[in-house]
Amino acid sequence: MTTKHERLPVLNGSTDSHADATTADRTDGLDTAAREPMEGRRMDIADLRAGFGEKVVISGINLAIEPNKVTALIGPSGCGKSTLLRCLNAMHMTAPGAFVDGEVRLDGVDIYGRQIDPVLVRRRVGMVFQRPNPFPTMSIYDNVAAGMRLTSSRTRRRNNDDLVEQALRRADLWAEVKDRLGALGGSLSGGQQQRLCIARALAVEPEIVLMDEPCSALDPISTAKIEETIHTLRDRFTIVIVTHNMQQASRISDTTAFMTILEAGQPGELVEAGPTSEVFSQPTMPVTEAYVSGRFG
Amino acid sequence: MTIALTVVMAAVGALLLWILGYVALKGLGAVNWSFLTKTPPGNPSDSGGGFENGIVGSLIIVGLATVLAVPIGIAGAIYLHQFGSGRLGSVLRLCTDVMLGIPTIVTGAFIYALWVINFGFSGYAGGFALALVMLPLIVRATDEMLRLVPRELSEASLALGVTRARTVLSVLLPTARAGIITGVRLAGARAMGETAPLLLTTLGNDLFMQTDPGQRMSTLSLQIFGSATGGFVAGQQRAWAGALVLIAIVLLLTIVARLVARNAAVRR
What we know:
The complex is a heterodimer of chains A (297) and B (268).
Chain A: H1 21-26, E1 43-52, E2 55-65, E3 70-74, H2 81-87, E4 98-106, E5 109-110, H3 118-124, E6 125-128, H4 140-151, H5 157-170, H6 174-177, H7 190-203, E7 208-212, H8 220-233, E8 238-242, H9 246-252, E9 255-260, E10 269-275, H10 276-281, H11 286-292
Parallel strand pairs in A: 3-8, 3-9, 6-7, 7-8
Antiparallel strand pairs in A: 1-2, 1-4, 4-5, 9-10
Chain B: H1 2-28, H2 33-37, H3 52-83, H4 87-101, H5 104-119, H6 123-148, H7 151-159, H8 164-193, H9 196-199, H10 220-228, H11 233-266
């Protein structure tokens, strides 16, 4: 892997990252070439196998995630969609006994490479969870600024105001909270909390945003709002979303990947992936057809 | 069901009020300004005088024990929470439970054998003994509170690219803060009332004010014990007053801890 430009990881889009020596050493292999600050990146998953201890949850996964596209992962419960998603930012490895084989390449560099610090991977690949999980002790403002504050050794208070506003605007929450940024994050409604979590993830300016069924705990109106948000985010980020809701997948995604367990007891596999319209209208595999037409799953 | 529970609740409440009322009744007569600002009279059968040295000694020794036990206890609990999912963790948890059950006189004897034999009776020795009494309480309370913090919060922090250490310090601990403060408060209240381990470590210093923990010190609990068992009416009067003051101090610390915990919850 050749690094085009000698540059440390881009944090918060700033160029003053005089990260300490150990950080620099551990990122040698990661291509952090100069880019437009908010341009999405591609990911390539090659022959991925992952699970916990003896249990293999997913196996033989190959998938290309195109930049600035929304990729939806669909499939029945328990087929490993969330595990696959969590492999994309190494969150999977935070669970006890977790293992990963194969490669997940972020712009060509395997994030499971020996030299790569998963903490730095997660700054580039953000995540929104199934249940809204704002930090309960922090205000709305602090929730959004949390990523910047907790990942930086210096306090960047000066620029935070702008970045917080920008992140909240992108998550389509600014208008609703701009007069009460000091209120606790938990005082918002469920849908607002989820958009707050999206803003929090966006504030560290990741290149890829992973969403694990972000609307499953929300009502239809909040869901519509978040789908709208996802739609606009595509311009700047690469998005991977896990969803149970096929209408949602067809509404918001450019690419759809269908996963399932082909035989009971076997790990989840990726059955087919392609442009969303094709996967839904003319799937190549019968099992996909059965699922998207609602005949199973 | 409701009636049974109400009766039990009323009985418990009545018992508590009875204890408080009785102590207040017996002690209130002797509590006055000079009780808080004077040492006991040289002749224990004389009335008057106070437990100033004991109050100051208790505050110093419990303060010392808290300073020692809180950081070690919280650090231990963080270890258990982060790395204690395996066999080692359950062994360590068992150890803290056993430590929790050790009679405090044994703790006192332990410090006596380890420290007092070599360096003599002192406030420091008392502080060490009380720290050992507080430690398992703080570890257990903090561990339980950390385990109550939803895993989603740690995950949210880790997913932002925050290191594990920073996640513990900036997300886990603040979220569990109110509960941890409660644990520390209970441990402190327990230490305030401990007498047995102090008999073997600070010995007591009934008549003189001593603010140097390198020397023998008196504490409220020791003075209550000494005066109550002394056999003089005036001394027993002072013991009741001391008991009342001890309760008042614990109450005061409780209120302060509550305020701190509440401020922690609504800060910003």
